[in-house]
Amino acid sequence: MENTKEIVHKNNEINKSTMEEDRINKMTHFVVSQTNYTFKEAKYLLEKSNYDSITVIKHYLNPTPKTKKEKPKTLNQKILGEFRHVCDNIAMEGIRKKKQKELMEQMYFNQQLKNKVNVD
Fold first, then answer.
1. Coil, helix or strand for 34?
2. How far apart are the first and last CA of the chain?
3. Looking at residues 108-115, what average pLDDT do you find?
4. What residues contact 46, with CB distance under 8 A and at least 6 apart?
5. Mind spelling out the 3-state secondary structure of 37-97?
6. How far apart (Å, rounded) are the C-alpha atoms in residues 86 and 111?
7. Domain extents for the chain?
8. Element holding 98 (H helix, E strand)
9. pLDDT of 3 above 80
C-alpha cells in the first residue's frame, strides 16, 4: 500500500498538470478572442512563442516590424559629429597618457624602494 505522502505527492502533480492545461487553454482562448486565429493556430503559435500571448497578438497586428529609417544628417550635424569624435579621441588619449605616466611613476618609486632596501 502506498503511504500518504506518495498519494499527496501524486495528487499535487495531477493538480499542477491540470492547472497548467487550464492556464494554456485560457491563454489560447484569449489569443483567439483578440485575433482571427483558430484554436489550433493560436495554440501552435503560443507554443512557438514560449506561451507569450502578447507576442502572438503583436505578430498578428504587425507581422513585419517596421524598421526606423534614419533621417539624413544635415551638413551642420555632420560637422559637429566629427568635432565630437575628434574631441573624444583627444580626451581618451589624454587619459591614456595620464595613466601611463602614473604607472611609470609607480614603477620608479618601487625601484627606488628596492634600491634603498638593497643598500641597507
1. helix
2. 86
3. 88
4. 24, 27, 28, 31, 52, 53, 56
5. CCHHHHHHHHHHCCCCHHHHHHHHHCCCCCCCCCCCCCHHHHHHHHHHHHHHHHHHHHHHH
6. 37
7. 1-67, 68-120
8. helix 75-119
9. no
As given in the structure block, the three cell numbers for residue 120 are: 641597507
**pTM over 0.70, yes/no:** no
Cα-flanking dihedrals φ and ψ of residue 72, to 5°? -65, 140
- Taken in order 47, 49, 52, 56, the sign of the CA dihedral is negative
Q: Which three cell numbers stand for residue 32?
A: 483567439
Q: What is the pLDDT of residues 22-47, one digit of tens each?
A: 888 888 989 999 999 999 999 899 88
Per DSSP, the three-state class of 3 is: coil
Which class would CATH give 1-67?
mainly alpha
**pLDDT tens, position by position, 40-97:** 999 899 889 888 888 899 888 887 767 778 888 899 999 999 999 999 999 999 999 9
